[in-house]
Amino acid sequence: MPQKSVIRTMLALFAWLFLQNFNVVPEKQPETTASYRLRKVVLDAGHGGKDPGCVGVSKTYEKDNTLAIVLALGAKIKATYPDVEVIYTRDSDVFIELKERAAIANRNNADLFISVHCNAISKASTEGAETYVMGLHTAAENLEVAKRENASIFLEDNYRKNYEGYDPNSPEAHILGSVWQGFYLEQSILLAQQIQYFSNKVAKRIDRGVKQAGFLVLRETAMPSILIEAGYMTNKQEDAYLYSEIGRQEIAEAIFLGFEAYKSQMEDKSASKGSVKKRAQPETPNAERPVVAVKAESGYIIHLLSWPSKLDKEAGKMALLTDVKEEQTSSEFRYYLGTYRSKEEAEKVLSEVKNLGFRTAKVMSR
Predict the structure, then answer these.
(1) DSSP 61
(2) Which of 147, 187, 198, 274 has the fewest CB atoms within 10 Å, counting from its CB?
């Protein structure tokens, strides 16, 4: 096995072991021990320098929009949470390689990676914001967005050597990172959901949803990571909004509120009740609840997860599965696969389900 593959496998195993203990307090841990805190966030302004990104209807550049939004976002985080270190992949009009953007986050052991971009499409009427997490493409339009953003590597020197022969236009390229980022997919989706909510409520952007695609910059990061497409520069009205000071500030505020809600949910209960200012938030999951098996008709199911609020079965990891069933109780929504005739049959499918990132999935009698 090539040396780089061995290193990547070892890193993946390390990430898996870390997540098995993520935000978990040992039973005998002293009360004075601090719980999880989000301490570092890396903000990535897409494109830059010789890479302008999308060109708007009014000849504006994506690289300028993303930098302005990211700098405004960073200022808001610093002002509200001075204990959170904000790290920029770029804070001026310079070209930064995709691999280096992720490397900056990895070297700094960041807790979160947020990449900001603007979109473009041939249909001029298309508008709205969407947020991506790493994963497989379930729609052709997601594939095209990923291809366009990944094409920045063609501007890099020796890109084939840097990315081990990676070709952003090949079918294989768009599944390489799905397992790697799968370790952080639940957290990434949670952040993406919050940002989409506030993009709609605060920036009044049409909500185009949380999606999955094979973005190279997300593939290389070893932490929860998202890529925001803040709007369409091929839409005349949205292009003007993205170039305006009020538009950039509103988008930065929406992303900040999503970040704040995510931070609150990921940290302990006392912090989320005390130090975080209360704001209107979407009904998104706080934490996965334990499920008690209830006997019903004979057979077996694979329980995927339970959340306090309804989830979109066509988004996130569940979009990778077929025939996901939903069951509502008085306190939560439960999602499962099945029914299987035997426990052995269900357990065979369970191993494949866990490989897709459902680490807490289990076989239950039904």
Answers:
(1) B
(2) 274
Element at 179 (helix H, strand E): helix 178-182
How many residues make up the chain in this entry? Answer: 366
List, in sequence order, the alpha helices (H) in 21-164.
62-80, 98-107, 140-150, 159-162
Domain ranges of the chain: 7-16+36-266, 300-365
> Which of 58, 145, 47 shows the shortest CA–CA distance to 97?
47
- The Cα–Cα gap between 269 and 95 comes to 41
Ranges of beta strands (E only) in 107-149 are: 112-119, 129-134
Rounded CA separation 13/7 (Å): 10
Cβ-contact 208, 215 below 8 angstroms:
no
Question: 60-74, 150-164, 351-365: which range is least confident on average?
Answer: 150-164
Pairing of strands 300-307, 333-340: antiparallel
Q: Pick the closest to residue 44 from 130, 114, 129, 103 (CA basis).
A: 114
Q: Which amino acid is at 158?
A: N
Higher pLDDT, 54 or 150: 54
Phi, psi for residue 227 in degrees, rounded to 5:
-130, 120
Nearest CA to 364 out of 311, 312, 295 is that of: 295
Checking DSSP bridges between strand 325-328 and strand 333-340, what pairing results, if any? Answer: antiparallel
Q: Beta-carbon neighbour count of residue 229 at 10 Å?
A: 22
Q: Could you identify the residue written with the tokens 């497409």?
A: 229
Any idea of the CA torsion for 174, 177, 183, 185, to the nearest 10 degrees?
-30
Residue 308 has pLDDT above 50, yes or no: yes
CB of 116 closer than 8 Å to CB of 230: yes
Q: Taking 70 as the threshold, does the pLDDT of residue 28 lie above it?
A: no
Residue 188 tokens, joined = 């990434």
In CATH, which of 3.10.129.10, 1.10.357.10, 3.40.630.40, 3.40.50.300 is domain 7-16+36-266?
Answer: 3.40.630.40
CA distance 318 to 169: 26
pLDDT (tens digit, 9 = 90+) per residue, 220-236?
Answer: 787 889 999 999 999 99
Task: Report DSSP state, residue 310.
Answer: -
Question: What does pTM read for this prediction?
Answer: 0.61
